[in-house]
Amino acid sequence: MAPSYFFEPRNISTKLHLEVLHDAVVLCVSAIGSPDAFVLAVEKIGPLLVYRIDFNDHHSFEIEDIHMIRKRLRQLEYKFGYKPIVVITEKDYDRDPEILKHLHPFRVLVLCSEMQILPRKGCDEDCFR
Predict the structure, then answer these.
(1) Alpha carbon of residue 71 to chain centroid
(2) How far apart are CA 45 and CA 21, in angstroms?
(3) pLDDT tens digits, residue range 75-100?
(4) Three-state secondary structure along 16-33?
(5) Which of 110, 117, 79 is nearest to 92 (CA)?
(6) Is 1 in contact with 32 (CB distance < 8 Å)?
(7) Which residues of 38-60 are buried (b: 16+ CB within 10 A; e: fewer)?
(8) CB contact set of 61 (below 8 Å; sequence gap of 6+)
(9) pTM of the model
């Protein structure tokens, strides 16, 4: 999976370039099976620093989780002097888009990715099809 763009939960029709994270402090929040791959993908985009909170795969966020995330965001804001950006996966967004509104006034970005076929041993995308 290759990162392609972000959108904000309050405006899902607007695609934001990946560069929106450049020089930002980011808190990756995920409830997926491979959180390391997600965090690595975010790190490659180029934020200043990346922090993370991982939940079990398929975890449904509850208000207690939101309180914990907000506490961590406030700690990062105090440490760096400006608000960090929350980045979540599209899968986590789809699970419960409404609960993310409770993270306001912190900015939440949803990372959208697309499948990318990497050539290997002479087999490319056409060969795969």
Answers:
(1) 18
(2) 7
(3) 999 999 999 999 999 999 999 888 88
(4) ECHHHHCCCEEEEEECCC
(5) 110
(6) no
(7) bbebbeebebeebbbbebeeeee
(8) 31, 55, 92, 95, 96, 99, 100
(9) 0.88
